[in-house]
Amino acid sequence: xxxxxxxxxxxxxxxxxxxxxxxxxxxxxxxxxxxxxxxxxxxxxxxxxxxxxxxxxxxxxxxxxxxxxxxxxxxxxxxxxxxxxxxxxxxxxxxxxxxxxxxxxxxxxxxxxxxxxxxxxxxxxxxxxxxxxxxxxxxxxxxxxxxxxxxxxxxxxxxxx
Length: 161
Hints:
- It contains 6 helices and 5 strands; from the N terminus they run βαβαβαβαβαα.
- It is globular, with a radius of gyration of 17 Å.
- By secondary structure, the chain is of the alpha/beta class.
- The longest helix has 28 residues, at 133-160.
- 39% of the residues are buried.
C-alpha cells in the first residue's frame, strides 16, 4: 500500500516535503499531486474515486484557506483521509484548521496540526501498519527511539544543573 499526498497548491510543497521525508524514512511508497478542490473539482473527485484501485491505502490532503480538499476527497473515497491544514496569509491557518476539522456527519477526516506534515505522515504509517507487521515494528522502534532521546536529554539537562 502507498500513501497519496494531495496538495491544493504548489505553494504547499515546502510543508508537504516534510511528510514525504517521513514516509521515506519508513520506506513507505507515496505519490504527491497538486489537485485543487475548487479549481479542479472533477480531477479531485476522480482521484478519490480511483485511489483504492490505484493501490493507495491512505490519503493526506494538504490545503489552506477554505481547505475543502480533505472533505471533497473524503466524500468520495472509502480510504482514510488525513487533513493537513496549511498556514496561510489569512488568520495564520486557523481558517484552514477549522475547515478541515469541522466535517459533517458521515464524512470523517482525521486532522493534524496546522503545517503538521510529519504527524500526517506518521498517522498514515500507523494506519497502514494495521495490516503490515513490518511497519508496526518500525513505528514501535520509532517511538522507542523518541523516548530514549528524551531520557538522554533529561539526563544531560540534570547533569548541568
